[in-house]
Amino acid sequence: MRSPLVNKLSLIFGPRPSLKCILLCLVSVCVLIVLLSPFSSTTFDSVTSYAKPDIYTNYRKLKEQARNDYLELKSISLGANLIKDVGLCGKERENYVPCYNVSANLLAGHKDGEEFDRHCELSQEHQNCLVCPPKEYKIPLTWPAGRDVIWSGNVKLTKDQFLSSGSMTKRLMLLEENQIAFHSEDRMIVDGVKDYSHLIADMIGLGSDTEFLQAGVRSVLDIGCGFGSFGAHLLSLRLMALCVAPYEPSGSQVQLALERGLPAVIGNFISKQLPFPSLSYDMVHCAQCKIIWDSKDGLFLIEIDRLLKPGGYFVLTSPTTQQQDSTTSTKKGITSSSLEGFTKKLCWSLLAQQEETFIWQKTTDSQCYTSSQDKIPVCKGNDMQLYYQPLARCISGTMSHRWVPIHSKSDHLNSTELEIHGLHPDDFFEDSNFWKLALRNYWSLLSPLIFSDHPKRPGDDDPLPPYNMVHNVMDMNAHYGGLSAALMEARKAVWVMNVVPLGARNTLPLIHDRGFSGVLHNWCEPFPTYPRTYDLLHANGLLSHTASQKCSMFELLLEMDRILRPEGWIILSDTLGTIEKARTLAAQIRWEARVVDLQNGSDQRLLVCQKPFVRK
Hints:
The chain has helices at residues 4-13, 19-36, 55-79, 102-107, 145-148, 159-164, 168-171, 193-204, 229-236, 253-259, 299-307, 328-345, 415-420, 425-453, 482-489, 508-513, 542-548, 553-563, 576-588, and strands at 87-88, 129-130, 149-151, 173-175, 179-182, 219-223, 240-245, 264-266, 281-287, 308-317, 348-354, 357-362, 472-475, 495-501, 518-521, 534-540, 564-575, 592-597, 604-610. By secondary structure, it is an alpha/beta fold. It is a single-pass membrane protein; Single-pass type II membrane protein.
């Protein structure tokens, strides 16, 4: 005869207790021991830098941790075989960029350069696999050494592409056995980037390129940036220079610039507008960027006008004047005269011309566009939510309250400028303080983690981590750009790609008016960048937002894994339920993940993850 207790257990677990039953019992006993023990310590580290002697808080925290561990072990015991690691992609996807399938675009009828444009509608199939680095891939050198020397195996660049390239920035490279080295500024004596920058400053009427900021030039869009040497020099002058260049299957300008730690994004306005609002940049630069500016009835120049702020500069270095023969002056005249008609319609004035370099300045008078019958029509409405729309044959931004000449802008937004963006100064100040505190918490959280994972990195002469180990940062839901501002104020050696999700409040004009880089993006789609291009991804509330947009969290995390470098970091902030779901998915993607309680009594949690270095 079996006892009543045994009969009850038989009804619950069956006649013979299984390993599942035993494991569940053991876990339950452990939970009771932990909860009843008065001397147990919490397994979570507080995000704050000081200890809170709050017994109730510690008890609640401990209880929640025990509950989470119990549920996690229960999940494993009930069906460990249901949670499988995501598989690895094949070698053909090592440098894969979704939405840029040139073959599919050609089959769909796109031509005349449009085959290199972004067409996510033709890339609907999703392969749920992890993009692996090439066999020769190595962790990039820490900043600033990584700006001047990169591993050649980290980028898809053949020796023939290097040797056949003739632009100024490409001539500054030195291809060695397994590295690509870039000349430092000290050695740029003749035909160098530093001299070129001084030339532009002189043509604008400045004494030196160090006066760009005083002249109102804080943000520069560098179209077809070569491999980023001009942008690197501008960054040293405390300007925000963003490289934008078309997708290239190999020899990519964007991939190499990002590998150097320079701001860059894939962009091609052959047929569509770039994902920036009107009046975004103080200067647009093109040095031999292979764009025929007088084609399509000046449609490309109209897009440049849309992006330029009032009083901004368009710097064009034309390739047609490089031939040293009798046709040089003729070709120069063709370039100058063919653009003259279009630039007059745009109310631009030609400031200066020296050899192959031209500089135009956009008007500060918004009435100029309507004062003559020969002018280009003004657009109706606004372009606040434009997202890869067709290029427009009309002038944008003239009716905007943001029509403020670059010379009149201050370094910091005043109350009047904040009100233009619908912000009260007190709310903006509160947001700034929030991100200053959040940054200190993030940094105190990441520093010991990075140091423990890399006890021999950085070296004795390097700054403490993660000052030079985290450089390329993306804020995937940037709000007002507060994290970027906090990083700048704290003098961290990073730059931030601020992303405003489609469907959220469009704060991108505010971000650009603060002098930061940023784009509008739909996170239901892949981001326009190459694999392994960011060191840190930050997203506050993005998971909840994408869920409201009916986006797949799993596909979003896979995309984050694609653009994150091996050993890179992810910081997600969201509600408890959302973070727990993300934590489960993170385990499938092989991330090392931990949940952090913010200790403020709210439902918000942090999920801090690190991507491992996985080889195929």
